Amino acid sequence: MSGCLIESMARYIGQTVTIFTKSGGLSGNGFTGVLAGICDGCVKLITDIGVCDL
């Protein structure tokens, strides 16, 4: 990823985003989640939060 793209996306850490990819199948619909981090070539999204029933 270019530095400019990383800097631009970093502004959205902690917010809900949808990221679209160049791929087919279900991943072609994009991924929605909370942007947890971004570094060289890697985007981390939180897409589901587990619940513990006691």
What key phrases describe this protein's structure?
alpha+beta; single chain; 54 residues; flat; 33% strand; three-stranded antiparallel sheet; 15% helix
Describe the protein:
With 54 residues, the protein is an alpha+beta fold. It is built from 1 helix and 3 strands. The chain has one helix at 3-10, and strands at residues 16-19, 31-39, 42-46. A 3-stranded antiparallel β-sheet has the order 1-2-3. The N and C termini lie far apart (43 Å). The model has no long low-confidence stretch (mean pLDDT 85).
Q: CA-to-CA gap between the ends?
A: 43 Å
Q: Judging from the principal axes of the Cα atoms, what is the shape? A: flat
Strand proportion: 25-35%
How would you write the strand order of the largest sheet? 1-2-3
In terms of per-residue confidence, which ranges show pLDDT below 50 for 5 or more consecutive residues? none
The averaged pLDDT comes out at 85
Helix-strand topology string: HEEE
Number of strand elements: 3
In short:
With 54 residues, the protein is of the alpha+beta class. Helix content is 15%, strand content 33%.
Element layout with pairings:
Layout: H1 3-10, E1 16-19, E2 31-39, E3 42-46
Antiparallel strand pairs: 1-2, 2-3
